[in-house]
Every structure is written in structure tokens, then in C-alpha cells.
Amino acid sequence: MCKRRACAGSSAARKQADIQRGGFPRGHALEGSQQLQIYSSVRSVLARHLVDPRGVEVGVSRGVVRLRGQIYHLGLGPYHPMSPEVLQTIEGEILRIKAVTRVFFEIDNWTRSSGKWVQAAPPSKNKNVEPEKPEDPKV
Fold this sequence. Notes:
It is a single chain. This protein is an alpha+beta fold. The chain has three helices and five strands. It has a domain at about 30-120: Alpha-Beta Plaits (2-Layer Sandwich). The strands form two sheets. It has a three-stranded mixed sheet, with helices on one face.
């Protein structure tokens, strides 16, 4: 019988050990501030790799990160996509963020094939479409 408050095999001791090693207790739902910290860290990773933030939606729920949209270099537009190596690096850096358990990509301009990133077909340049003209101001 254990006379201490938290025995080595008790769930309280396991939770304390998880916290001490920098993780979160098993079965512990992340609080809003922790999710915000993950969200901020993911955005920092994207900024470090010059990902245009307007094209990517980031979602965080219980340590699972979801990236949706399109990934392009900042300021270069849809005709200058990222390289597969940069996407692999981004994924690895996000997985190293404390409390992140998984990363899901729902990226329109990239797909995964046999564990490798493959660029999807680029957007078509339709030359027959005229640009919209601004309306004349009515006086």
C-alpha cells in the first residue's frame, strides 16, 4: 500500500509526469489559451516560410491542426507555388509544436501521393475573359 499522496502507478502521478515533461495530461482537453498558442505558433511557421496568409485557413482543435485553402509564396501569387520540400518542412515544424498531435492538409493546389507532395494543376489563364471595368460614378 502506498502511503504517499500520489503513488507511482496512480493516474495523478501519470498526469503530473506528463506535465513535468512538457506535455499535457492524457485525456486532457486543451484550454482556449493553449489552442490560441498553437494557432499562433502555426501562423509563425507559415510566416517564416513566406506563405501567403490570405490563402490558408488554420484550425486547431484538441491538438489537431488543419490547414485549408491554397499555399503560395507571399506576394508572388498563384503562379509561384511552394516547393514540395518546403511543404514537408512546414509539416515537420508544425508537428514539433508543443501539444500538436496531428496535422491535416486540405490544400487545393497540392496533393499527397505515396507520401510525397505533388502540385495540382495550376489555375488556368483564360485569355478570352475581359477584366471587369469599374462603374462610372453617377452624378
